[in-house]
Every structure is written in C-alpha cells, then in structure tokens.
C-alpha cells in the first residue's frame, strides 16, 4: 500500500488534487445533510441571517475558493502550504457548487426543480476530477507515448482531433459526453457520430430540410429521456433531497 501511494500519488504530485477532491465531496455531503436537517426542522442547525438578509453558504464558499486558489499560487510546491490550500479550495468549491443553481438563476431555487442543477454539477465535477486523478489528461494527451509527446506535431494533432470531436458532440446537444470526451477521447468520438438532439445547433443547421433525420432525432431523444429521466431523478433526490412539490394551480369558477 505504501509503495502504491508513493508511486501513484506522491511522486506524480497528485496529493493536493486528492485532498481537494476529498474535501470537495465531503463538504458537499455534509452541507446537504445539514440543509436537509434544517428543512426538516431537526437538529441544532439554523439558517444564518444578518440584518434581515439570508446568508447563503455560497458566500463563505467564494471566500475559501479565492483564499485557497491564490494561496496555492503563492505557496510553491513544497511544504504543507499546497496541501492546506488544496483543502481550502475543495471546501470552497463544495460550498459554491452546492448552490450552483442559485448562481445560475440568480434566485433561491435550492429546493425547487431548478435546484437539481446543483447536484448534477457536483456529480459532473467530482467525476471529471476523479478521471484526472486516475491518470486521464484532457484532450487525449494521456494516449500519447513519450516519443509522440517529444514531437510537438503529434501532440498538437492529438489534442486538436480530440478537441474537434468534443466540440462536435457539444454542437449536437450532448454536453455531458463532450465534457467527459475531453478527457476520455472515445466518448467524444461516440458523441460526434451519433444523431444530434432536437433543438441543438447541429440539428437546426443540418436537419432543417431532412424530415426523416429530424423525426429520427426526436424519437431517439424521446426514448432516451424516457428511459433515463426517472433513474436520474431518483439518484439526484437520494443525493441532494427531493425538491418541493409545486402547488396545484387554483381553478376559478367560470362565470356565465
């Protein structure tokens, strides 16, 4: 175990990244537990208000992220500084992304349907950082051997191709595949060759005069969303808590 730790974590300099990822995930988990307890009216935790203004935890998250980021730049690569800054950065990002939906909508949508975006962003971030920690590098650089890396032309070509496929997948409305494809190249290729989703820039540009392709795209998107929407929502509810149910619209009696 000690040999594996030294070879895979310490020597490549991945300890700060591991500390940042761990503190990020733990902060999100602890924050969600506390907010769910506050929502249920259990435990000693309460919302923080100052002068009638509710202080969201994205505020200390911004402070910790800025402190950890600038501290990492200024601390160099030796000593306990990088590790401490990595923990501060991970905690700050965990607090910030837990309220990502509030930043996106500029509204308190934490326990609404729009608030699911926070959970999705946290999961995506943790997965992407986890891939980097496991040795995957953006745009397929990890697939190049030492000789190819020494030749700048091969390295640039590999990065350009992977970036092109990821961009193509993004234009087809496959944002998640494009993000992961930037790190795992074959995912970008899969996203680039599959049908575009309805309403995506690719579909609007190339399916406008192709009714068969347009109908096939809608049908595939419908079956995909129907198959995966339910499980995805249940996982999000399990991680972050179910959103509040919207009240049924009141019906006014018709006047005759």
TrEMBL record:
Swiss-Prot/TrEMBL keywords: Membrane, Transmembrane, Transmembrane helix
Keyword Membrane: yes
Transmembrane segments: 15-34, 55-74, 80-106, 118-141, 153-170, 177-196
Species lineage: Bacteria, Bacillati, Actinomycetota, Actinomycetes, Kitasatosporales
Domain of life: Bacteria
Protein name: Integral membrane protein
Organism: Streptomyces phyllanthi
């Amino acid at each position: 175990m000690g040999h594996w730790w030294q070879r895979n974590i310490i020597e490549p300099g991945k300890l700060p990244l591991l500390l940042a990822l761990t503190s990020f995930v733990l902060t999100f988990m602890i924050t969600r537990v506390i907010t769910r307890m506050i929502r249920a009216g259990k435990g000693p935790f309460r919302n923080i208000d100052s002068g009638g203004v509710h202080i969201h935890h994205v505020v200390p998250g911004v402070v910790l992220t800025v402190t950890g980021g600038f501290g990492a730049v200024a601390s160099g690569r030796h000593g306990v500084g990088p590790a401490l800054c990595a923990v501060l950065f991970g905690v700050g990002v965990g607090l910030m992304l837990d309220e990502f939906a509030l930043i996106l909508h500029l509204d308190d949508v934490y326990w609404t349907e729009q608030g699911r975006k926070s959970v999705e962003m946290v999961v995506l971030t943790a997965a992407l950082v986890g891939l980097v920690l496991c040795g995957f590098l953006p745009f397929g650089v990890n697939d190049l051997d030492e000789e190819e890396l020494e030749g700048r032309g091969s390295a640039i070509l590999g990065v350009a191709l992977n970036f092109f496929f990821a961009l193509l997948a993004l234009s087809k409305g496959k944002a998640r595949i494009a993000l992961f494809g930037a790190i795992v190249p074959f995912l970008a290729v899969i996203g680039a060759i599959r049908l575009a989703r309805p309403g995506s820039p690719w579909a609007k540009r190339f399916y406008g005069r192709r009714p068969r392709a347009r109908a096939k795209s809608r049908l595939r998107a419908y079956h995909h969303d129907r198959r995966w929407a339910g499980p995805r929502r249940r996982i999000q509810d399990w991680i972050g808590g179910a959103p509040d149910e919207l009240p049924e619209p009141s019906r006014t009696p018709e006047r005759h």
